[in-house]
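Protein in question passed on here:
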Amino acid sequence: MKKYLINRILGAAIFTTNMVANANAQVPKITLDLSKATTNVSPMLYGLMTEEINHSYDGGLYAELIRNRIFKDNATKPEGWSLINADTTKIKAAIKLMAATQENVPFDERRHAITGALQTCLRLTVENGGSRVGIANEGYWGIPVKPNTTYNASFYMKGAGSMPPQRRPGAPASNQPAVPVIADSTAGPITVTIESNDGKTVYASGTINLEKSAFWKKYQLTLTTSAGITPTTNARFVISTNRTG
């Protein structure tokens, strides 16, 4: 503790001395003569100072449209994501951020994570399907929509029944509720859309067939807007279904 204090005091003393010396020094003078050039500068040379403020990198220079795409922005809540439920009076659904820990995700699921670095996922649980339910991403102050534009979407998903997950011998029992049964083992469908924030206007849409499996699978599709739409940033990205699971 004494060493720390002494170092801090010495630092303050040096700083004060420098201030006195600078006060007595002459003010530097820079003269620019723009009438003649002494050397040529490459036209390819440029400079820019950026700082990670208001997503100038993620969502800025790196033109990713999905905000918090790997669910790492916040450890307790899925920032940028929200639940879509067309009929809250009849349909019971929820989303939850699932970290790959022994308490939250069963060992068998953690063993089959996408990668060792991507072990956090967003779980959508629909207890009784029938109406549209899904997850929406707000993007970076909206998803920009333009006419005649193709958007490439890719994501990992898995759908599983309610069979109790296998756990390591001696591992504590999970306090998570069982996942509801997917009604049958037929494929999907899962709808992917770019739509207005109120859900009333769909600018582009596509469909995938979600397999009933406990393993992650990568799904890819393209979403193309029509020529007649009006450009806007008042849009969101939505993955939805009307199935139970």
Q: What stands out?
A: The first helix runs from residue 2 to 24.
